[in-house]
Design brief:
By secondary structure, the protein is an alpha/beta fold. It folds into two domains: 63 residues, Translation initiation factor 3 (IF-3), N-terminal domain (Ubiquitin-like (UB roll), Roll); 83 residues, Translation initiation factor 3 (IF-3), C-terminal domain (Translation Initiation Factor IF3). It contains five helices and eight strands; from the N terminus they run H-E-E-H-E-E-H-E-H-E-H-E-E. Strands 2-1-4-3 form a four-stranded mixed beta sheet. A four-stranded mixed beta sheet has the order 5-6-8-7, with helices on one face.
């Protein structure tokens, strides 16, 4: 009885990677040798014995084909090559970040130009830029100043990026997002 409980509650994991050697379920397979030569359709047991003669494994490459295509090669080397390919693909991915630049409706010209240069640098690197204009106290009554500043930002940034999110109010601040071209 203890064996039943242990097997019943044991966690079942999905098999990872392709099937190989005696895990191949098809009665016959198309076999490709380690040097790329096509041997044709063989009985699975016969193909496994050919792979064992060479000191290698029979690995199922295309399981959905009729009959499945298998290749004679070393399983360890195959897994290593797959991992290398996955790591290479992961390195080539570009992660886009959202950089935020905060302004006020009364920001001076020098500060504005400095922040615009930084935004242009971020966009040229491929990051998105979120412009936030924060209003305090009675500045909220002069929201037209924020609209004018956002229009000026759009005009200055049109060479480097395009507006993804149009300027809008979010509480006491105005937000606009620009993405790289």
């Amino acid at each position: 009885m203890p064996d039943f409980k242990q097997n019943y509650f044991q966690r079942r994991t999905k098999p990872r990677g392709p099937r190989f050697n005696f895990k191949i379920t098809s009665p016959e397979v198309q076999v490709i040798t380690s040097d790329g030569q096509n041997l044709g359709i063989l009985n699975t047991n016969e193909a496994i014995s050919k792979a064992n003669d060479e000191g290698l494994d029979l690995i199922e490459i295309a399981p959905n084909a009729k009959p499945p295509v298998c290749k004679i090669m070393d399983m360890g080397k195959f897994k290593y090559d797959q991992q290398k390919k996955a790591n290479k693909a992961k390195k080539k991915q570009k992660k886009i970040e959202l950089k935020e630049i905060k302004l006020r409706p009364v920001t001076e010209v020098h500060d504005y130009t400095f922040k615009i240069k930084n935004a242009q640098k971020f966009l040229s690197k491929g990051d998105k830029v979120k412009f936030t204009i924060k209003f305090k106290g009675r500045e909220l009554q002069h929201s037209h100043l924020g609209n004018e500043l956002m229009d000026k930002i759009k005009k200055d940034m049109h060479e480097f990026g395009r507006v993804e999110l149009q300027p809008k109010f979010d509480g006491k601040q105005m937000i606009m997002v620009i993405q790289p071209i």
